[in-house]
Amino acid sequence: MKKRTKGEIILSILLIMLALIYVVPFLMMILGSFKSQSEAAMFNLELPKQWLISNYTHVLESGKILLGYVNSAIITIPVTVLSVLFGAVAGIVISRRNDRVTRSLYYYFIFGLTLTLQIASIFFLLKALNIYGTFFSVICIFISLRIPFTVMTFCSFVKGVPRDIDEAAIIDGCNFWQMTFRVLFPVLKPIMVTNIVITAIDVWNNFMIPLFYLGSSKKATVAMSIYSFFGRYNRDWQYVFGALTLAVLPMLILFLHRFLQKQIVAGMTSGAVKG
């Protein structure tokens, strides 16, 4: 058995500590959601003396979590689909057509990653277009923020795909778009799944953009619902923990799905290899 070096041991310890930073609060949240008020307020990892399912019933009846689910889905699904689809097509075009125009587009998207969200200017723009406070405006903002990242990751991945695939498709009579959708898209499945999961989690959990640009409690997302719920039950931690658990549950299931995990790992590792 190969002995580990000091560097590998230190790295393993640091990774374990980093994992505990994320895992311990998460376990505390889940366990606290089943506890009584006095137990939950102790913020520990002890098992509940009695598992109170009624906490979740109270959360669903008193809060607006279900409405937040619907509103978040209305925003998250189109943002994820459109940004990943556009990122895939743009990444293929930029990587395969290596000319002055596509290189300029590539640097344009890199520049887009460095820009910060200008809240005031976007607010006045949405007001001028008469779309402030609509789901459409928030969807457009999220897409504009996500596209640079998706284009960059797809470009990196496509550069590692052999051009022999393209040439074989062209010989078989495919044009560029047929080659893109029929030949390259199946090859891009790992990085596509990676971007879908990252985009969905980012949009679903985002609090600031819906808060600034929706302007209506009836359109509140899950994150906004949790914020208002916390204000009402700031001492009843069992209800706060229950609401937080319900909020992260869909994205947690999405991320922990075994098939998606394999695709994410493949997407991350393959995207780092340059052909």
Q: What attributes characterize this protein structure?
A:
single chain; 275 residues; mainly alpha; MetI-like fold; disordered C terminus
Explain what this protein looks like in three dimensions:
Helix 3 packs across helix 13. With 275 residues, the protein is mostly helical. The chain has 14 helices and no strands. 76% of the residues lie in helices and 0% in strands. The protein has a single domain, classed as MetI-like fold (Orthogonal Bundle), CATH 1.10.3720.
Low-confidence stretches: 271-275
Specify the overall morphology. globular
Counting H and I runs of at least 4 residues, what is the number of helices?
14
| Strand element count | 0
**What structural class do you assign from the helix and strand content?**
mainly alpha
**What's the CATH topology name?**
MetI-like fold
CATH class: Mainly Alpha
Distance between the termini: 34 Å
Using only CA atoms, what is the Rg?
23 Å
Compact description:
With 275 residues, this protein is mostly helical. It contains 14 helices and no strands.
Note the topology.
Layout: H1 6-32, H2 37-40, H3 54-62, H4 65-96, H5 100-114, H6 119-129, H7 135-158, H8 164-171, H9 176-187, H10 189-205, H11 208-213, H12 222-232, H13 237-256, H14 258-270
